[in-house]
Prior knowledge:
- The relative contact order is 0.12.
- Strands 1-2-3 form a 3-stranded mixed β-sheet, with helices on one face.
- Strand 1 (3-12) and strand 2 (15-23) form a beta hairpin.
- The longest helix is centred in the middle third of the chain and has 24 residues, at 100-123.
- It has 187 residues and is mostly helical.
- It has 7 helices and 3 strands.
- The protein is 55% helix and 11% strand.
- The chain folds into 2 domains: 3-70, no CATH class; 100-173.
Amino acid sequence: MGTVVYYTGLVSPRLRFCSKKIVGSSVGVQRQQVLEQVDNELSKGDERAALSLVKDLQGKPGGLRCFGAGRQIPQRLYTLDELKLNGIETRSLLSPVDATLGAIERTLQLAGVAGGLATWNAFGFSPQQILLFSLGLLFLWTLDSVSFNGGLGSLVLDTIGHTFSQKYHNRVIQVRPLSLILVHTDI
């Protein structure tokens, strides 16, 4: 008989396991090899192969026991009162505030005003021409706000943000890996 040692580890960022390993036994070594195979498949990015490997070896000698045998809890929407009752701070569920686009928008507005003043001085526009040009820009801005719900302005701002701000670009394209947590209990 071997010594019982509990082992908790992280196979990959997507698969967390908790298994009982029997030291000095070939069964424990086989389980470790199976977990390494699953880890290799996950590191390659082939989640389907890892899942099929886990399902094929489930309950077999030397295989993985009890994976997926836990009771599944149905997903449902919780009310704010239920979240507060369980001690969950709802502000932590919101997206973090990013002021990058606000700074870019203010910079573009200042550049527009400076460019307008420079154009007025360079070409000597009359006050009537400046009024008509301003009314045209306000009409286009209102048309975008009403018809497209500000979509064209947001698209232009987003494109400029991606082009000139590496911080904003990295924040938008960041893909957070989905964490798959499998709890394994071996009795």
